[in-house]
Write a structure and sequence with these properties.
The protein is built from one helix and 27 strands. The protein has 321 residues and is mainly β.
């Protein structure tokens, strides 16, 4: 999915200096962003208070939206570099096309994982016809410097491993949870899981104490470490936890995001991740000139133009403002 902001801001993220090295309960409110003509998303990362959780650097939550008489998601071809995109649905379908020739329909609780490497472009659409409801999350993972120029590729994993406990089912999106490992390719120590809880469930989920974590509430009423987390909001949890107390006041679902704190500082602007302002300017120029990022075939419409780069010089910052 694209960042469709027409005035995208430059920001530097990453670095371990601002990692919270102990358990915390930091509730992050979303920013509402219009995605195309008919989809509004709630942006949780980057946030005014926090830019990354492990290598997770971008999180949008959208829906549930009734799109029975609407076109649904319509994101024109756009570029990416230096990151992986993770498409995750609870309802609906997304048709993915990219400049490698990949074409796949991603359905609920299937993993659509695109590794951009140094250059790729793709489009995302609700197919015609499409299911009535659309509900999901789009996430980015920053690639470390040692792998940010890997060959671009797309993975579609319809079947993912599960971990179960009384009242809880955890689908492993990326990384490993309680011994179950996702087939999705990763380049840093990271974890992503979809947690489904039945009404009345009280349980403790095992965690890695060296990882930092956050949870994104997708639906229902749930308390995480005694904090109520409403759908569309995110609770940052810090590091140093060996388990996470969960209590469901209704049928509910969460996304657990975590990983080893990302050691490198990154520059993230529009749909690009680099290490300097020059990296970003070169990527923008290449996209606008039709170089390097390829062509998405089969999409009816023009590619998305890049916004203008800001005139102000880039000022490095840490993981939090």
């Amino acid at each position: 999915m694209s960042n469709l902001d027409r005035e995208a801001a430059l920001s530097v993220c990453g670095g371990r200096g601002f990692v919270v090295a102990e358990p915390v309960r930091e509730l992050l409110a979303p920013r509402r962003v219009q995605l195309g003509e008919s989809t509004e998303v709630r942006r949780l990362l980057p946030n005014l208070g926090r830019r990354m959780v492990g290598a997770w650097c971008f999180v949008d939550h959208y829906g549930p939206d009734d799109i029975a008489t609407e076109p649904g998601m319509q994101v024109p071809p756009h570029p990416h570099q230096g990151l992986q995109t993770v498409s995750w649905l609870h309802d609906g379908e997304i048709l993915h096309r990219d400049s490698l020739g990949s074409r796949a329909t991603v359905r609920p609780r299937e993993l659509g994982l695109m590794t951009s490497g140094s250059a790729i472009s793709h489009s995302e659409q609700s197919p015609v016809p499409h299911p009535r409801f659309l509900h999901g999350a789009q996430l980015w993972v920053a690639l470390p410097d040692s792998h940010r120029h890997v060959d671009a590729h797309f993975e579609h994993h319809p079947e993912l491993p599960h971990v179960t406990a009384p009242g809880l089912t955890a689908t492993v999106i990326l990384g490993t949870v309680d011994g179950a490992t996702s087939p999705g390719t990763t380049y840093t120590p990271i974890v992503g899981a979809d947690l489904t809880l039945a009404h009345g469930t009280r349980t403790d989920l095992p965690l890695e104490p060296d990882f930092e974590y956050a949870v994104l509430a997708m639906s229902g009423e749930v308390h995480v470490d005694d904090v109520q987390v409403l759908p569309g909001s995110m609770l940052y949890l810090g590091c140093g936890r060996t388990e996470l107390p969960l209590r469901a006041e209704s049928d509910a679902s969460l996304m657990l995001l975590g990983g080893e704190p990302f050691a490198e500082e990154i520059v993230m602007w529009w749909n690009f991740i680099g290490r300097s302002n020059e990296d970003i300017a070169r990527a923008r120029s290449d996209w606008m000139n039709g170089d390097r990022f390829g062509e998405v075939k089969g999409y009816e419409g023009d590619p998305l133009p890049a916004p203008e780069l800001p005139a102000v010089p880039l000022k490095p910052r840490g993981r939090v403002r």
